[in-house]
Design goal:
single chain; alpha+beta; 2-methylcitrate dehydratase PrpD; 60s Ribosomal Protein L30, Chain: A; two-stranded antiparallel sheet; 6 strands; lyase; 2-methylcitrate dehydratase
């Protein structure tokens, strides 16, 4: 890996293109490196994972609205177009709108993969736009895998090197450039074209974190889909010879200078050198539970604690000692009263670790629909327990969150339960059970089991089998087979609840 140092440059310094981060990202994308077998296998796992969480959300209103928008933008003449989850394979839309609809479906339940470092991310959000363009251009499985691998590589590198949330910038600002880079690899574009697309995607996908703050709305699911859609549009413009703000990252009126650490900022982004294998996808991890990743380990801990606690009405106070990130984003440190409101939206409850731990303690389980049902959130004994749960930042858990040593890195915490008789029950967990270093790491059988569990009652067994056959053969798929990377439910799908412009 090569450490690239990023700082702000005055216009008079004339930072040359090869010295700009966007160019260095583009150079990785245009380097024809072969994919390692273990990396290709993980790409297949994540394609299966995305499909499972997408079909489980097909009837939800945000997904229906995005799908309805997509079908109103059919494939242009002379192009194959792209498939949309829930619709027959022969229904083809323009690729940016397929990426939009499929991106919302994948993101809606907050149930696919994650990578956490200096910033947060869901690298699987790269997959919908890259699949859409591969189908649209009649490319094969080999090209698709290479594009996805680049998307993961760039996003992980940016997430490791540049913190966005400290400045209340949403993490899709890393997704736009990574998706554009992945598309560059997929299509085989020259460095110059990818450079322009990456810079355009950064410039147009920088938004605030208010989409994940306060009363969180359906835009939480739409935001990464928007980044994928915009990345496709940026690549299209760049292919037509249209340019981007430059230097996008380092300019004196650019991204770093005004939206991040300012004119004196210093960042290090580590990227593969020429010919170096891309392995970043292997450092990412999926979810066993449909909730914010930093709650995964704590759900597992709550399930483990439940038999020891017995009557939960005896709990006087439950304190979760955890990292700065968990405390500030999904815990008490966020200062959001909505995180304790029984009328909060699903998206808000997904970002409330007090709620999540309360339900996991009571039910000994977590379900992507039942655990968020309005009647579940309003249950009096749940509300009572929920209000007793607080988070506090613990310096040691924060240190472990940021550790680079896999044996040290942790996303969990220590839970202290104070009972009404003065007894205290304490337990802790570092990693979710499904994490690669957890108690029950996910492998191909677990990805398939999760897919079938989510598809049950929505997708017939025959359709599930067909999709899994296509997905597991991804490295060898011919262009005319790539359209099989979609799923059609057993029952007809409705459209959006209200009419729009299209």
């Amino acid at each position: 890996m090569i450490d690239h140092r990023v700082r702000v440059h005055r216009s008079s310094e004339r930072l040359e293109r090869p010295d700009q981060l966007a160019w260095k990202i583009a150079a990785v994308a245009s380097d024809p490196v072969e994919v390692l077998p273990e990396v290709a296998k993980m790409v297949v796992n994540r394609v299966i994972d995305n499909a499972g969480v997408a079909v489980a959300s097909l009837r939800r209103a945000p997904v229906a609205a995005a799908r309805d928008q997509a079908v109103r933008h059919p494939a242009p003449p002379g192009r194959a177009g792209s498939t949309v989850f829930g619709l027959a394979p022969q229904v083809r839309t323009s690729p940016e709108w397929a990426a939009w609809a499929n991106g919302v479906a994948v993101r809606e339940l907050d149930f696919h993969d994650t990578f956490l470092a200096a910033e947060y991310s869901h690298p699987g959000d790269n997959i919908p736009p890259i699949v859409a363009v591969a189908q649209h251009l009649d490319l094969g499985g080999r090209e698709l895998i290479r594009g996805i691998v680049t998307g993961y590589e760039i996003q992980v590198a940016l997430v490791r090197g540049i913190c966005l949330h400290q400045h209340r910038i949403d993490h899709i600002a890393h997704l736009g450039p990574s998706a554009a880079a992945g598309l560059g690899t997929l299509i085989g574009l020259p460095t110059e074209v990818v450079y322009q697309a990456v810079a355009q995607a950064l410039h147009t996908t920088t938004t605030t974190r208010q989409s994940r703050k306060g009363q969180i709305s359906s835009w939480k699911a739409y935001a990464p889909a928007f980044a994928g859609k915009v990345a496709i549009e940026a690549v299209d413009r760049a292919m037509r010879g249209q340019g981007a703000p430059s230097p996008a990252y380092e300019g004196e009126d650019g991204f770093v200078a005004w939206l991040l650490d300012g004119p004196d900022a210093r960042y290090v982004v580590s990227l593969p050198g020429p010919g170096e294998a891309r392995r970043a996808i292997l450092d990412t991890y999926t979810k066993e539970h449909s909730a914010e990743y930093q709650s995964q380990a704590l759900i597992d801990l709550a399930r483990r604690l439940r038999p020891r606690l017995g009557d939960l009405s005896r709990a006087k106070r439950i304190t979760i000692h955890t990292s700065h990130h968990t405390h500030q984003v999904i815990g008490s440190g966020a200062g959001d009263p909505q995180k304790y409101s029984p009328t909060a939206s699903r998206e808000t409850l997904d970002h409330s670790i007090p709620y999540i731990v309360a339900v996991a303690l009571q039910d000994g389980d977590w379900h992507h629909e039942r655990s968020y049902a309005p009647q579940r959130a309003a249950r009096p004994d749940t509300v009572e327990l929920w209000q007793k749960i607080v988070t506090v930042e613990d310096e040691e858990w924060t240190r472990r969150y940021h550790a680079t040593d896999p044996a040290e890195k942790a996303f969990g915490g220590r839970v202290v339960v104070e009972l009404d008789d003065g007894e205290t029950v304490v337990d802790e967990i570092a990693l979710a059970d499904a994490h690669p270093l957890g108690a029950r790491p996910f492998g191909r059988p677990e990805y398939i089991a999760k897919f079938r569990r989510l598809a049950k009652g929505v997708i017939s067994t025959e359709e599930q089998d067909r999709f899994l056959d296509v997905a597991t053969r991804l490295p060898e798929l011919a262009p005319d087979e790539l359209g099989g990377l979609t799923l059609v439910p057993e029952w007809p799908l409705g459209t959006g609840e209200t009419a729009g412009l299209f």
